[in-house]
């Protein structure tokens, strides 16, 4: 019997992909590396400063075969795939990860951590959001914690979330793009006083690439 679209979505064999593109990773620990990005539609947070608000409504993006996504992603030279959103963990990522790993690529997740973890990831970047705080079990699995700093209260938010992460997790503070000129000096001073943190910049925006 042929499976329904809903069943295939539950199994992760279809995903509502908003866009895919080949570029350089612009943020965090892996900045500068060539990577193929898969942006999944649908978000449960909706940050007012989000720079990809058009990704929020999953119904805008017809489900795509995960097998097709894998074949397309693996046709590029880089052996690094970044899965981002929206919020990827709104969907079952087990099948996507297993098929990508079968192709011999490394897989990087970008998530708010608001949903249960699925999929087998080589690197997990958790960027916690106040309107939908990360689940403790997801924060504990983070390879890097990347906190967006829009105003001074976000430093406290960053410290609260650092307590959820493992001792091996890398800690990053990243200025919200529209407030970067105001917050950059504050972040620099904060990291000087609290050197467990590093700074992350949206270098792709400075380079004018996706």
Describe this structure in words.
The chain is α/β, with parallel strands linked by helices. It has one domain (5-207): TIM Barrel, CATH 3.20.20. The chain has seven helices and ten strands. The protein has an eight-stranded mixed sheet with strand order 2-3-5-6-7-8-9-10. Helix 6 links the parallel strand 9 (170-175) and strand 10 (197-199). Helix 2 (66-73) runs parallel beside helix 3 (94-102). The longest helix is centred in the C-terminal third of the chain and has 14 residues, at 180-193. The termini are far apart.
Largest β sheet strand count, sense and barrel closure? 8 strands, mixed
The quaternary organization reads as single chain
Task: Show unreliable segments.
Answer: none
Q: CATH H level: which superfamily?
A: Aldolase class I
Number of domains: 1
**Helix content bin:** 25-40%
Please compute the radius of gyration using only Cα atoms: 17 Å
CATH class: Alpha Beta
Shape: globular
**CATH fold name, please?**
TIM Barrel
Strand content: 15-25%
Please name the CATH architecture: Alpha-Beta Barrel
Average pLDDT, rounded to a whole number, is 96
Span from first to last CA? 41 Å
Largest sheet, order of strands side by side? 2-3-5-6-7-8-9-10
Number of strands: 10
Structural class: alpha/beta
């Amino acid at each position: 019997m042929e499976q329904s679209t809903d069943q295939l979505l539950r199994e992760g064999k279809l995903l509502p992909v908003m866009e895919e593109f080949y570029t350089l990773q612009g943020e965090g620990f892996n900045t500068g590396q060539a990577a193929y990005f898969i942006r999944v539609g649908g978000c449960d947070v909706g940050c007012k400063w989000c720079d990809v608000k058009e990704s929020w409504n999953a119904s805008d993006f017809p489900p795509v075969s995960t097998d097709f996504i894998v074949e397309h992603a693996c046709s590029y030279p880089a052996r690094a795939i970044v899965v981002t959103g929206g919020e990827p963990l709104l969907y079952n990522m087990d099948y996507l990860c297993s098929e990508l790993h079968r192709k011999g690529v490394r897989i990087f997740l970008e998530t708010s951590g608001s949903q249960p973890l699925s999929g087998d990831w080589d690197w997990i970047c958790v960027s916690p959001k106040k309107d939908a705080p990360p689940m403790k079990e997801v924060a504990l699995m983070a390879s890097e914690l990347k906190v967006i700093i829009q105003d001074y209260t976000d430093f406290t938010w960053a410290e609260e979330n650092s307590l959820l992460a493992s001792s091996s997790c890398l800690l990053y503070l990243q200025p919200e793009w529209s407030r970067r000129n105001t917050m950059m000096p504050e972040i620099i001073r904060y990291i000087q006083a609290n050197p467990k943190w590093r700074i992350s910049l949206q270098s792709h925006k400075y380079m004018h690439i996706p």
